[in-house]
Amino acid sequence: MTPEDFEPEVSFALAAIRSELDSRYLCPRQQVDLDRALLALTSKALALGQAVCHLVRGRFYGEAFGLARSSVEAFLLVKYISNKDAEERATSYLNFFKAHLYNAEQIRKKHFSKVKRPGAVKRQWLEDAKKFPSRRSWQNPYNMATEAYLDPRETDPRTGKPFQAEFDYYGIYEHTSHYVHCNSLALIPHLTSGGVPFKTLSGPDRDGEKGLLALHYTLAYLYMICIIAFRQFDTELPPQLHAQLDTVLTKLRTALPSSRITFAKPKAP
After folding, report:
1. In this structure, is the dihedral angle defined by the CA atoms of residues 18, 20, 25 and 30, taken in order, positive or negative?
2. Contact between residue 81 and residue 150 where contact means Cβ atoms under 8 Å apart
3. Of these four, 67, 124, 233, 246, which has the most CB atoms within 10 Å of its CB?
4. Which long-range contacts (CB under 8 A, 24 or more apart) does 162-168 make?
5. Composition of the chain by helix, strand, coil, percent to 5
6. Do 150 and 156 meet the contact criterion of CB atoms below 8 Å apart?
């Protein structure tokens, strides 16, 4: 079976998650940035899943695989923000847009000095941006992944210690990064042998495993994000949705031709 054979089931699962989220009327509390950040990241992860499905449906497997890295990143953010000092981290994360504006302002001053200067509110944001330790990235993904997850429900039964996401970083985030940054690994389907007239890639991507992995990753990480976000509102996903998602993920894993990958997902309360 091809990845696009599995795509309708993943799309249906995403629709079920959307329906569950929208029907709960989860309302972020005023002046509680953690509520807003977790719900926004959940919505973003859902949109990423839908985009991956569109790419797989069009047989752009490598591109879907690269986009799946953003699903991993969304999970790392949710894990890190909710782990400790949660409100402080959420506020810092949401305010990091000021750092991006700061970087854009440096470009304006260097290359477009005649463009109108920012107004008073934006100038204050630029001053606020100077307080961030780095204005290039909010947190290092490796640090977010390897910080022990302190939720008592997430203790590794094999070691008795809190879970980390080290495999998620090295095994998935780093691998998908090759297809985000156009590293040479991502060029394999596009390479032409020496002495042969070059032709651009036409027709479907033949690396179906990347399509299957993209579907699996984007749904699995959205699943984990939803569990954490729902806990923030003292609720959980219904058992039937757990069962539906587990079934789809199992089908995707068993369809992989050369890999049998398992994921440590947060357990239902």
Report:
1. negative
2. no
3. 67
4. 163/264, 165/75, 165/76, 165/79, 168/72, 168/75, 168/76
5. 65, 0, 35
6. no
What 3-state class would DSSP assign to 257?
coil
Q: Which of 252, 222, 257, 249 is nearest to 237 (CA)?
A: 222
Q: What is the token pair recorded at 143? A: 């640090």
pTM, two decimal places: 0.91
CA angle 232, 236, 239 (to 5 degrees): 165
Q: Which two tokens stand for residue 13?
A: 């699962």
- Provide the token pair at 154: 């997430």
Distance CA 94, CA 128 (A): 13
Q: Give tens-digit pLDDT for 235-259.
A: 999 999 999 999 999 999 999 875 5
**90, two tokens:** 């959420």
Q: For the chain, what percent of residues have pLDDT higher than 70?
A: 94
**Which tokens in the block code for residue 133?**
């330790």
CB < 8 Å & 24+ apart, contacts of 147-153: 147/79, 147/80, 147/83, 149/79, 149/83, 150/83, 150/84, 151/83, 151/231, 151/266, 153/266, 153/267, 153/269
Burial (Cβ within 10 Å: 0-12, 13-18, ≥19) of residue 3? buried
Q: Is the pLDDT of residue 268 over 70?
A: no
Residue 28 Rama label (left phi>0; alpha psi -120 to 50; beta): beta
CA–CA separation, 251 and 237 (whole Å): 21
